[in-house]
Amino acid sequence: MQLETDIQFHTNIGTIADIEQLNSPIPFKDIHEAFASTKYGEILAGNIRYERFKPLHISPQEWYTLLGDDVNNLTHLTYTFNLAHDFLTTNNDALQQNTNGYLEKSIFNQDEEQKLLLSALIHDWGEAVVGDIPFDIKTEEDEELEFHAFDQIIHEINEQTSINLDSNFIKETLLEVVFGMDSKLSKAFNAIERLGYLTTGIKAWFKSTEIQEDDPILSQNLEQLANNVLLNQIPTLIEYASIYPAVHKYLTSHEESISQAFLSSSASSFKTFEGEALLEKINTFNKARRDWFYWI
């Protein structure tokens, strides 16, 4: 399968949408460009996400062209930033119209919004040092190593660029938003990340149906990616839909696609698993499917 593109995989650093409208005291664009110019930014620019689902005959550039900014480790950062911005905008618009049924945890002040946006933009910097570990197998030890990697990255940015990052503020923000488990902002950020996974999962499912005849191997791998996303993300996003208007709106807007993906799935998409592991995957997937159709 050959895909044509004008985007250079190793030089595209992503773009931040609507930056002028944010009126933010944090220079998000400058921070991202500074990071992208370091060796750490270059490492992320050369790496792909969801690699275990990419067939060997598909190049990193083709993978990126197929699934977009979320599958490049560097552009994933701006992708998540833009998703966080959309999440906050949609959330605030909905709450201005009707706050009934939503708790205080779904309302964010300006400082909280800034912390969420900053975290979205930098949350995976540490992966340039420790590597990209998939969502469903990442451990607490992996998270700790990733967090401590920020020290050397921030030091290099301050030494080599015109940006002067406040290390203490960044690490305190990351502890509260990214690496914390039970804070108000960590739950909101978790919802944003899960929406990102789901968006790419839906895209993978659509692509798998389009190329079934042309490239059955790639099609099956994309279906496996989509099903893995559905079983890991849907149950928790359903819970978040009762907290965040943005999540509720996203799920209802994509109801048809998600339903079709669930209904068209096959056991063959879990071909990399055997025995009890295979049975567990299928059972978890079936439970997520039941949860989904009960919710809608």
Write a structural description.
The chain has 296 residues and is mostly helical. The chain has one domain (19-295). The chain is 64% helix and 0% strand. It contains 13 helices and no strands. It has helices at residues 28-36, 39-45, 60-67, 75-97, 110-122, 127-130, 140-160, 167-177, 184-210, 216-241, 245-253, 255-263, 275-295. α4 (75-97) packs across α9 and α5 (110-122) crosses α9 (184-210). It is globular. The model is unreliable at 1-11 (pLDDT under 50).
Secondary structure elements and pairings:
Layout: H1 28-36, H2 39-45, H3 60-67, H4 75-97, H5 110-122, H6 127-130, H7 140-160, H8 167-177, H9 184-210, H10 216-241, H11 245-253, H12 255-263, H13 275-295
Helix pairs in contact: 4-5, 4-9, 4-11, 5-8, 5-9, 7-8, 9-10, 10-11, 10-13
Brief characterization of the structure:
The chain is an all-alpha fold. The protein has 13 helices and no strands.
